[in-house]
Amino acid sequence: MGCTRVNYPDDCWNLTTPPELQAYGDISGLGVLISFLGSAWFAVILLIVKYFLVFDPKVNPFQREANHTNDENASNKDIGSKNINNKDNSDEENLQCSQLTSPETDWWRPNPIDVILLGYIRHPSWVRSVNKKFPSLESVLDESLLNVCDVQVITGIGVLISGFISLSCGLSAYHWQMIVSLGWFSSVTHLAGLTILRNHLRAHSWKRNIRFGLMFILLVGLIVSLVPTGYFTWKNPDPNVNSVSSMVDPAVCYFDVRIANHIRQARSCDKSRTLTCHDENLGLTPAFQTMIISIILLAFGFFTRSTKIFKPLSSFTNIKLRRPLSHHYQKFLVRLISFIEEKKQTDDQNSSALRKTNILRILLLWPSLALLVFFRLIADFFSSMLVELYWLVVAMIWGTSGIADIRRNLETGNRLRGGILNEENQWTFGQILSVLLLVAPLFATVSLFFSKATSKKELEPRNGPSYDMNRSMGSTRDGTWNMCNRQGTSEVIWY
Description:
By secondary structure, the chain is mainly alpha-helical. It contains 18 helices and no strands.
């Protein structure tokens, strides 16, 4: 893409005829899109595999390690020790548990949705079979996810920086929308990866903080980048047809709200003269509503992931918000039950009073109990890792379809159909290199898997007895014992 300088803001105020759209293969080339989307979807697949095969919902991510182990010992973790269906902890084990569990994390409880689902799916014989065939699966998945998520956040920041630099060169609204979509992929994938890897990152807080800081930079840049997209309502992408906005407009013109509104008003026509004018309210346009929803989802997702990753925020939401609300509501239910029972005993001989008591029980007590269970289910459901993965898949599908729609809009423009897409779809060196770079995380994952398997075979003869003892006792990656973790039992505590 050549640099055609935009005299900002004078050219934007006098933007009557849209400029010629130039191809920008480094942003919207077919190879670049395949590489970007492929790596993002590869991360999603790794996250799903980790959740259903090795993710342990009963491991407290905020538990202080009693004995810190290095990464080599961590690779010897036996996923068969993750006995999600364990229901027979003895009193002696619970006593040991209380000695190793930190009071600072006593508020934490395993998510019942994840515990029940994974306990149902992971049959003991199936878990043993997976552990025997793939003994280093979790460590391979963790390292692979870290690598892929790091690539996502770095490329996301890089594509935003490239876009901001290109604004002065007349970067089109079409390419800016593509940049925002690619940044969306990076943010969603990286946040989900940080959440499901919080157990691993707990032992490496500086790595977690660096990645979280990069995610915050990407989030701020993405929110700023989303603002001008609220004006990108391309009802007709052909610049020869009257439209509120055009995908060939310089994107920099839409960063100033006054200029953006001026462009909309200048391109609106009198409805009495033609029936093809587009003079709808900006707040009612799909582009503006999508922009608002995207910003809200990004901010909300960043906040919810922050509460899961950092102990102070997680403990605050549980101790200061959820637990007091539950406690006060339970007190209300106890008083309500006491009131109904007292009224029943007082008016035991009065049939009309008994009917009133039954009415109170049916119309007030039972709905109140149902409401308590409902809100607890909602809270547990939306805080579960299952929903985390569900929203990740939904966001990825939505983002992929959005990129497809952007390119489809470009194809429908008669002026643009023949040249720009053909030029961006050419398999030049940059496009081929981007696709080849997609093979890197796949190759790294396979290499990690075989290297871990080889190192495990070399370690087993020397450390066989101690390793077998660790397996029988349920040694976990963080140096604690599953049988001693208070959250390691299948008991689900509602509060």
